[in-house]
Amino acid sequence: MNVLLDHLDLFRDGFIGTVSLTATSALLALVLGVLIAGFRVSPVPPLRVFGTLWVTLLRNTPLTLLFLVAFFVLPQIAFPGISSYVLGVLALGFYTSSFVCEAVRSGISTVALGQAEAARSLGMTFVQTLRMIVLPQATRTVLPPLSSIMIALTKNSAIAGAFNNPELFSVQKVLSDKGYNAMVIFVWVALAYLVLVFLISGLFRLLERRMEVAR
Amino acid sequence: MSSSVLFDAPGPKARVRNRTYAVLGSAGLLALLGFVIYRLAIKGQLDGAMWDIFNYSGVRNSIANGIVSTLQAFAMAGVLSLLLAVLLAVARLSDHRAVSWVATSVIELFRAVPLLITIYVLWVGFFTSEPLWAVVIGLTLYNGAVQAEVLRAGILAVPRGQSEAAYALGMSKTQVMTTVLIPQAVRSMLPTIVSQLVVTLKDTSLGFVITYEELLYAGRQMANTILVDGENPYVPVVLVFGAIYVAMCLALSALANWIEKRGSRAKTGIKVVEAETATPEMGKAPGGPAA
Q1: Can you state the angle between helices B57-92 and B234-265, rounded to 10 degrees?
Q2: Which single residue of A17, B46, B66, B202 has CA 20 to 30 Å from B153?
Q3: Among the ranges given (A71-75, A104-108, B16-20, B226-230), the one the predictor scored with the smallest mean pLDDT
Q4: Which run of H or E residues covers position A25?
């Protein structure tokens, strides 16, 4: 108990760090993921190839390796001296976007064929069909896998802690380096993550219920 | 490409437009790639001397050692996590309230806590001098919990008639579980189980945070210690190690897809789940966990 009370501000900063890393990279992953999913079903072959490559490469690379790319290779190419927060968000967002893309793509394939056919026969273009007809209806089936992806993202953000980002893992690291009992800190950090995970799955359950339609 | 329902078969105008987009898109990507190569060349990361390091036997040896210790941790964690998964899944489905409650809390705890933190705590608290065991036990706990949920979903998805028939034959609870339910559950969930094994393989790379000398750690050491003309060979090392990881994971994913295809051909009446549906946080497989 003392560890928590004595270092309340450290724990608070760590919690806020985890939440902010997760939220920012979730936003990036969602935007990129939907865009790339659009690429993968588009009528333009090079875009489809690009989407497939993107997903295959990112899904089969360990996230830790992506962090190494972000922290050691990216500054060599452009933007030297970029903050470790932005680099962490980039690595997390890009990695997660490949999973979001696959979830959205399988959601698109669950929308009834007649919907897209009707949209096309009304003269809608590909972008219109996807944006106004198919994606809104796909949202419902995409939500459950998206919830698991977001929970995984929350946990993956711990890796950013090993790369100079203040969040819950670095709290654990700093305090065990100071000589506190690792297990005691673990209990508090684990509790914080449990709270976050329950919040996210609760949020998605709420969304699912609001999206529900009687069929 | 008239097979997609999302767009019409392109007419002459659409074909021209698509071709324009294709050219523009390709040009954009090529420009980006060119910029990256140009910048890297300026920094000297693409010089022959930088890549020459892979010709030294010391470097090759450390790559080989890295692969071996990654595979070693993966093999141990894979086997142990599957054993733990069977145990946890059966315990969670147990009729004894206390047993199932304990299994549920173990599963929920280790699924919710980041693997990195579990591994780190195991390392600091118990295995300071043997990081291999911290990695293996951490991976086992996390993946065991996830695989247990996959297996449980599989067990619940087995038609009721199967266990009812087995009980009617006078089988005991243990017999029903081990000879009727688990074999069918494993068979239908095999693609998902293998996909989760791919995740296990990727997660062995977390060992580098606690100085376990696996593949990524070897790469990091190499990039930090070798100097070619006063520059660290980050780019060659990242590209080579990335390629090794992607190749290993793709081989395992291919196995999952092959099992799925093979399973859907067999006429056993057991439905095999799609390998592609495996998300990083699997567990809501078809059949779904009971409420």
Answers
A1: 40
A2: B202
A3: B226-230
A4: helix A8-40
Per-residue three-class SS string for B100-120: HHHHHHHHHHHHHCCHHHHHH
Q: How far apart are CA A88 and CA A161, in angstroms?
A: 9
Query: Which residues, including other chains, have CB under 8 Å from residue A133's CB and lie 6 or more apart?
Result: A111, A115, A116, A118, A119, A124
CB B79 within 8 Å of CB B140: no
Report in angstroms the alpha-carbon separations of B15 from A41, A47, B1, B8, B12.
16, 15, 11, 11, 5
ipTM: 0.79
In the structure encoding, which two tokens stand for residue B178, read together?
């081990």
What confidence category does residue B93 fall into, taking pLDDT thresholds of 50, 70 and 90?
confident
Please choose, from the candidates A213, A190, A179, A203, the residue with its C-alpha nearest in 3D space to the C-alpha of residue A6.
A179
What is the spatial distance between Cα A41 and Cα A130, in angstroms, rounded to a whole number?
10
Q: Which of A60, A115, A193 to mutate to test the interface with B (most CBs of B within 10 A)?
A: A60
For residue A124, which of B7, B81, B183, B137 has the smallest C-alpha distance?
Answer: B7
- Residue B94 to residues A44, A129, B100: CA-CA distances in angstroms? 53, 49, 6
Whose tokens are 């793709």? That residue is B250
d(CA B274, CA B291): 23
SS (HEC) of A111-129: CCHHHHHHHHHCCCCHHHH
Q: Nearest CA of chain A to the CA of B159: how many Å? A: 24
With a pLDDT cut of 70, the percent of chain B lying above it is 90
Calculate how close chain B gets to A190, using CA atoms only, in Å.
6
Strand partners, B231: B228
CA–CA dist A118, A102 (Å, integer): 25
Tokens of A136: 């809104």
Give the gap in angstroms from C-alpha A24 to the nearest C-alpha of chain B: 18
Low-confidence ranges of chain A (pLDDT < 70): 1, 3, 214-215
DSSP A131: I
Which of A41, A68, A163, A164 is most worth mutating to test chain B (most B CB atoms within 10 A of its CB)?
A: A68
The answer to whether the CB of B93 falls within 8 A of the CB of B100 is yes
Backbone angles phi, psi at A125, to 5 degrees: -80, 175
Q: How far is CA B270 from CA B109, B171, B266, in A?
A: 32, 22, 9
> Tokens standing for A16?
């806020």
Helix spans in chain B (H): 12-42, 48-52, 57-92, 97-112, 115-125, 131-157, 160-168, 173-175, 182-203, 215-225, 234-265
Phi then psi for B228, rounded to 5 degrees?
A: -115, 115
φ and ψ of B286, to 5 deg: -50, 145
Q: Quickly tell me which residue has 């962090």 as its tokens.
A: A67
